[in-house]
Amino acid sequence: MDITELITNLYSDQGRQDPYPLYAALHELGPVHVFPKRAPGSTVTAVAGGYDLVDAILRDPEWTKQSPPGWEQHEILRTFESSMMFINPPDHTRMRAVFAKTFTPRRLGALEPVIERVTERQLDRMAEAGADGAEVDFVADFAYPIPALVMADFIGLPEADLAWYRERVEWIDEFLDLGGATPQRLAQANTAAEELRGYYRELIATRRRVPGEDLITGLIEALDSGTVDLTEDELISNLIVLFNASFVTTVYMFSNGLPLLLEHPQVTAALPGDDELTRGAVDEVLRMQSPVHFLARAAPRDTVLQGVPVAEGENVMLLIAAANRDPARFADPDRFDPRRSGPPSLAFGVGLHFCLGAGVSRLEGRLALPRLFARFPDLRVSRTPEYSGSLFLRGIDKLFVTTGA
């Protein structure tokens, strides 16, 4: 299989369902390749899947994110381009300094009882729904509500708004996928951004009148006192992106991870009471089933990556999910090993744009998964999982199980 056939297959429905054989074939061809079949207007020159190269580019602050042409004309792109996840220094540095103060060890510690409470609530609901052998949708009853409710509590969103909010998040995620920038998806993403911006303006006004103990209240107070270098529009953009990035990846960590974990009953039986094993299992799930499969970075100057020329301003597609299974860095990379040593996975990125919510996501996995298997030691998948169809955020959207209770 040459690189043209490989990328064509990756873009196909089957490739999105199961890209890992294609990533294995990519590693046999080498760590980086000229990107074939460039679409009109595309600036992607190369595709990289080797761990060392992907890691090096993500760590290099000179390799930056590139603004798409005409971004000023679209609400969703204006939102992206005024958030720390999509921009470069110095604005990225300025914004990240504000939000980094919110993801402190103290705040993470304060989230533990929230995660435990939400998890126990959802386990009770799973037990009720799964009584007498009835099927339960693991995503609807566990994988989605736990991170959504935790982040809603952390940020300050009313629980009653989450269903409405989730639909708009999905519109944005569809736009971000490979080939997702169709006129229909762009229009839908613009609508989502407009509605979410209006939602946060109202919520901010409410918190100014009635402060709470949440992130939004703290950021508003800092903004109004002039102690942070951030505008209200930038605050809203970052809240939209932060909530999306912080909970969708955790949803897919749970839903992608469950079938993988259930293939190793000796591990699931040992997770309750073994925090070290649980931490390793969470990291291994993230390595083998990365929710985010690719990122892009633009070359700071004309350069050559292991024989592949990339012009200044041209993009390299970084297949982080492929890098996480690079046999040059991970022995037997398709084997699940929660005691694995070696380099960290790139599931949350690395460098300037390392995911701020990574600590929250790992904490949710560490606290929720042992409780899940302690409560339901006979948990089983009862139907073929249904994937999102996206490769950018690849995950299981429907996963029916029986609890054995």
Overall strand count: 11
How do the strands line up in the largest sheet? Answer: 1-2-7-4
Give the structural class: alpha+beta
Order of helices and strands: HHHEEHHHHEHHHHHHHHEEEEHHEEEE
Described by the principal axes of the CA atoms, the overall outline is: globular
Strand content: 5-15%
User: If you average the pLDDT, what whole number results?
Assistant: 91
In DSSP terms, counting alpha (H) and pi (I) runs of 4 or more, how many helices? 17
The oligomerization state is: single chain
Sheet having the most strands:
4 strands, mixed
Radius of gyration: 21 Å
The first-to-last residue Cα distance is 47 Å
Helix content: 40-55%
Poorly predicted sequence stretches spanning 5 or more consecutive residues: none
Descriptive overview:
This protein is α+β, with helices and mostly antiparallel strands and 405 residues long. Helices cover 54% and strands 8% of the residues. It is built from 17 helices and 11 strands. The protein has helices spanning 3-11, 13-17, 20-29, 51-59, 75-80, 91-100, 105-129, 138-143, 145-155, 162-176, 183-209, 215-225, 232-262, 265-270, 275-288, 320-323, 358-375; strands at residues 32-34, 44-48, 136-137, 295-298, 303-305, 308-310, 315-318, 380-381, 386-387, 396-398, 400-402. The strands form 4 sheets. A 4-stranded mixed beta sheet has the order 1-2-7-4, with helices on one face. Strand 9 and strand 10 (396-398) form a beta hairpin. Helix 1 (3-11) runs antiparallel to helix 3 (20-29) and helix 10 (162-176) packs antiparallel against helix 11 (183-209). The longest helix has 31 residues, at 232-262. The protein is globular, with a radius of gyration of 21 Å. The model has no long low-confidence stretch (mean pLDDT 91).
